[in-house]
Design a protein that fits this description.
heterodimer; A: mainly alpha; MetI-like fold; B: alpha/beta; Rossmann fold; CBS domain Like; 2 domains; 6-stranded mixed sheet; 14 strands; P-loop_NTPase (chain B); EC 7.6.2.9 (chain B); nucleotide-binding (chain B); ATP hydrolysis activity (chain B)
Chain lengths: 302, 350
């Protein structure tokens, strides 16, 4: 650039740290991290072992049960959750379609995975959300972390996850939870913060302890928002199982990955639509359930 | 259960992060405007001294922004004071630790809110038992006690309705039942009836007065409506800009308004319903004539009695039936129509 001839070199070309220094720094961080992981490998394995067991147990249960039992259980859950015939019928039709194209077992594996991920996300997310709602400080610390978790490309945090846990279902599970837990935390926090101040004041005026306030007032009134968080978490887990298949999670995600690698157009779409079908079933059921929870707030008089 | 009086002493509330720093300056005479302009702090309450009668209804009256809702929240310490004391049964509420305060709120106070503040996810009966439930009273016992109050406030048959299914007046009945079920000595009512229609409001005032006749709780009632204040209050304090500008009985305030502000307020009041016969009676000269009127009767009722009896003169008797004074229709009418400004009162006193 011509303009550069008038400027000192420092202002023209960005003064990057030189390559050797960066390489050294990179190497020492990587080595250090690997060393750390290597020295705690047994502890880490022991720590995640229960997850592995739970996941394997659920997967075996879903895959080995006769399809009719699973379908009956699903229909029962969907019906009691939504009390809606249309959603229930839709569930039956889509599960039949999935079975007919030969994706039943893969769907069961994915279902098991999503179930475990959602449960963990709820168990982790709700307490963190509560802490965040109680303290401005906690909120100001946790919020940026959640921002990073949501915007960081999932492939990037797959790297340390794989380094720590290796290849398999558990690292996949952890990656999915990292991706899916932020809405759970955020919406729990939001739900509690949106609780009517007057009602909280009334709870205080009658002498509620902090726990009674949380249990009797804040959680029940935040529940519709928390349900929306659970719904979001399920949707994001379903989206993430495809990426998680890259580190060894089976099911529909792996089929999609293979289809990408081999340009199997039809296989890709079949599996994709199976995921969509499950997503819609979960979504409609949990939303209808959430709406029923709010029945008391319907305004009946004028 | 004997209720105790509540003593509010030298209470100051300055809103803002460093409220405590400015108490001395306010005591030294800094005004609300100066404090806000120079330091960005809001003077909520200033040197409040009120003694609230035991077993009586204390009404705190003021327009919006006068600090009346702030004041009532100091009694159960939903708001912490910047300086001063709130004494109940000899204990300073402002110095209680967290546990004592919780116990105080659970057993000694109950509150009714302007916007009802019911729990929307709980039915009427579940709302009513809330106070007892958090005290750890067994459920069956809670429900038994709550049922009585629900019937008492006229909500029988609505036990399993949700608040949203009820009208405003009925929701406030739930609020009242919830407070009464707590069986606390102090009943705090923060503009409890302000959100209700005029007719329902009068109806609810009657409910409160009837209940109070037998319960004799120490009631603190906040309102912006002077008619309501005069109807309910055994004692009334009028608040303006965080200061008490006058306190006394309804009659005191109507007959001797402390300044122009209160004069303007009381001008519209139906004086015949506030002033008692003994206030304007003449000492008895000669034999008692006309109809007997008991001490404490308001002018309107006395005038009605006299008109019905077709007499222009009545005599006032005390509770034992002894004649203590006499009164005629002309005096009653002139007392009912004369609006006395505080200046005239001052002149008359000189």
């Amino acid at each position: 650039m011509a303009i550069c001839s008038y400027l000192p070199d420092l202002l023209c070309k960005f003064p990057a740290i030189d390559d050797t220094t960066i390489r050294m720094a990179r190497k020492s961080v990587d080595e250090g991290f690997k060393g750390l992981v290597r020295s705690y490998v047994n502890a880490i394995d022991a720590l995640v072992q229960p997850l592995q067991w739970f996941l394997n147990y659920l997967e075996r249960l879903f895959v080995s049960s006769p399809w009719i039992v699973i379908l009956a259980a699903m229909v029962a859950i969907v019906y009691y959750g939504s009390r809606n015939m249309r959603i229930t019928l839709g569930t039956i039709v889509s599960m039949f379609a999935i079975g007919l194209v030969g994706l039943w077992n893969d769907t069961m594996i994915t279902l098991a995975m999503v179930t475990v991920c959602t449960l963990i996300a709820i168990l982790v997310g709700i307490p963190i959300g509560i802490v965040m709602a109680r303290s401005e400080r906690a909120q100001s610390i946790i919020n940026p972390i959640l921002d990073v978790m949501q915007t960081m490309p999932s492939f990037v945090y797959l790297i340390p996850v794989v380094m720590i846990f290796g290849i398999g279902k558990v690292p996949g599970l952890i990656a999915v939870v990292i991706y899916a837990v932020p809405p759970m935390i955020r919406l729990t926090n939001l739900g509690i913060r949106l609780v009517d101040k007057e009602v909280l004041e009334a709870a205080d005026a009658f002498g509620s302890s902090p726990w009674q306030r949380l249990k009797n007032v804040q959680m029940p009134l935040a529940l519709p928002t928390i349900m929306a968080g659970i719904n979001q978490t399920i949707m994001m887990s379903l989206a993430m199982v495809v990426v998680a298949s890259m580190v060894g999670v089976g099911g529909l995600g792996r089929n999609v990955l293979q289809a990408i690698n081999n340009q199997f157009f039809t296989v890709g779409f079949f599996n994709g639509f199976a995921l969509v079908a499950i997503a819609i079933i979960f979504d409609r059921t949990s939303q209808a359930y959430g709406k029923r929870l709010q029945k008391h707030s319907e305004v009946i008089h004028g | 259960m004997a209720s105790h009086a509540i003593e509010v002493k030298n209470l100051y509330k300055i809103f803002g992060p460093r409220g405590g720093d400015f108490v001395d300056q306010v005591k030294a005479g800094m005004t609300k405007g100066e404090l806000n302009e120079k330091h960005g702090h809001v003077l909520g309450l200033q040197d409040i001294n009120i003694s609230m009668p035991a077993g009586g209804v204390m009404v705190v009256m003021g327009l919006s922004g006068s600090g009346k809702s702030t004041l009532i929240r100091h009694i159960n310490r939903l708001i912490d004071p910047t300086a001063g004391e709130v004494l109940y049964d000899g204990v300073d509420v402002c110095k209680m630790n967290e546990n004592d305060l919780r116990e105080f709120r659970r057993h000694k106070t109950a509150m009714v809110f302007q916007k009802f503040a019911l729990l929307p996810h709980r039915t009427v009966i579940e709302n009513t038992i809330y106070g007892l439930e958090i005290q750890g009273v067994p459920d069956a016992e809670c429900r038994k006690r709550a049922q009585g109050w629900i019937e008492r406030v006229g909500l029988k048959g609505f036990e399993n309705h949700y608040p949203n299914q009820l009208s405003g007046g009925m929701q406030q009945r739930v609020g009242l039942a919830r407070a009464l079920t707590n069986d606390a000595d102090i009943l705090l009512m923060d503009e409890a009836y302000s959100a209700l229609d005029p007719l329902i409001r009068v109806d609810m005032q009657t409910v409160l007065l009837d209940l109070q006749k037998e319960l004799k709780k120490t009631v603190v009632f906040i309102t912006h409506d002077l008619d309501e204040a005069l109807r309910l209050g055994d004692k009334i304090a009028i608040l303006r800009d965080g200061k008490v500008i006058q306190q006394g009985t309804g009659q005191d305030i109507v007959l001797k308004p402390a300044d122009e502000y209160i004069t303007a307020f009381v001008k519209e009041v139906n004086r015949g319903r506030v002033i008692n016969v003994e206030t304007i009676m003449r000492p008895l000269s000669g034999n008692p004539e006309g109809v007997p009127v008991v001490v404490g009767t308001v002018l309107e009722s006395a005038a009605r009695m006299m008109t019905l009896a077709n007499q222009n003169i009545a005599h006032v008797v005390d509770a034992n039936g002894k004649a203590v004074g006499s009164i005629d229709l002309g005096t009653i009418i002139s007392a009912m129509v004369t609006p006395i400004s505080h200046e005239k009162v001052a002149q008359a006193a000189e």
